[in-house]
Amino acid sequence: MRKIKTLILTFLLASLGAAAQDLDHNTYMFAVRDTCDLYMDVYEPEEAQATVLFVFGGGFVSGRRNDPYYNPWFRNLTAHGYRVVAVDYRLGLKGQQMKFNLLSLIDSAKKTIRAVDIGVEDVFSAINYLNDNAEELGIDMGKIVLAGSSAGAMIALSSEHEICTGGPLASVLPEGFRFLGIMSFAGALMSDTGLPKYDIDPCPHLLFHGTSDGAVTYDKTAFGKYGMFGSSFLVDKVFSKKDYVYNFYRYPGHTHDIAGNFFDTWPEQQRFLENLLAGNPRIVDATIIDPSMMTWEQNITLDKIY
Predict the structure, then answer these.
(1) Which CATH number characterizes residue 105's domain?
(2) Please, where are the H alpha helices in 43-141?
(3) Mean pLDDT over residues 265-286, rounded?
(4) Is 204:181 a contact under the CB 8 Å cutoff?
(5) 98 SS3 class
(6) Which of 11, 45, 113, 209 is the most buried (most CB within 10 A)?
(7) Of 259, 268, 248, 269, which is closest to residue 305 (Cα–Cα)?
(8) pTM above 0.85, yes or no
(9) DSSP 3-state of 128
């Protein structure tokens, strides 16, 4: 895992071309759990158009909300008028034994689903904290975009799915709360009830994914009623069939590097955010072939993470 984090750090600093210096922010404790206290860092622009609530990656075993390699992206968001709220969540697979042979798939799927649910619980606690302190923090609760990378993207996708299916985890949210949008950097939706479906239309989704991702599936991995449904499956089999609003960018040959590529994908992020604020339901399904994009020499796979 240390080698993987070093690889991510090197990639981000190289691609962003900026030093990972600390940014001015305020830190708040938003929840107390049996195992830890949970904090959020709030980075303020000069004038906020909306709030991007960010959930970090790390395979549910590592990662921090304040890892310095996120700073250049946070700086970019705030420079364009977006408040950033980076949150903690409990790492539900830390210390867990994970195997991916045929006999262990269901057990590993159950553990991963539980880890996602724990993350969703913590994200919803963060939403409640923001709602309770919205006036003090200057936050418009109708303009919160939930963004996540890798494991954080899985939590982000599942958070919106929980809301759209009336799941029990969503019962704690303020009445009528909805995300303005979802931004997923190499995410997938876990399910223990078969193919995913939404009871109400989900908010617009921005999805980035490499076609050769070895850590979070681009399409799907399913065994019985258990499955991991990646960006391509969600768009091709669910969103496009129901006319849900999505912007999907496919990167042929790219691996899990897309989970950390906040720089090359910025123009697509910016247009998505601007369209959200303008109420423009723009649908995009694009394949991006760009030899200038940074890639990882090593393909991160589940066996290397766990």
Answers:
(1) 3.40.50.1820
(2) 71-79, 105-132, 134-137
(3) 98
(4) yes
(5) coil
(6) 209
(7) 259
(8) yes
(9) helix
Question: Is pLDDT above 80 for 10?
Answer: no
Q: What is the number of structural domains in the chain? A: 1
| Four-residue CA torsion sign, 92, 257, 126, 165 | negative
What is the distance between the alpha carbons of residues 276 and 166, in angstroms, rounded to a whole number? Answer: 23
Q: Which residues, in sequence order, are bridge partners of residue 207? A: 184, 248
Question: Residue 204 belongs to what domain range?
Answer: 2-305
The answer, yes or no, to whether residue 245 has pLDDT greater than 60, is: yes
Give per-residue pLDDT as tens, 63-79.
Answer: 999 999 999 999 999 99
Rounded (5°) CA angle 166-152-69: 155
CA atoms of 159 and 273, how far apart (whole Å): 19
Given a contact cutoff of 8 angstroms between Cβ atoms, the answer to whether 286 and 249 are in contact is yes
Question: Who's near 102: CB < 8 A, 6+ residues apart?
Answer: none
The token duo for 249 is 């960018």
CB atoms within 10 A of CB 104: 13
CA distance 164 to 192: 16
Q: Which two tokens stand for residue 288?
A: 């991006």
HSE-up (13 A, CA, CB side) for residue 203:
28
The amino acid at 258: I
Residues found in the chain: 306
Beta strands in the chain (DSSP E): 26-32, 37-43, 50-55, 82-87, 144-149, 181-185, 188-191, 205-210, 220-223, 226-230, 246-251, 284-287
Residue 100 has pLDDT above 90, yes or no: no
The whole-angstrom separation of Cα 302 and Cα 14 is 25
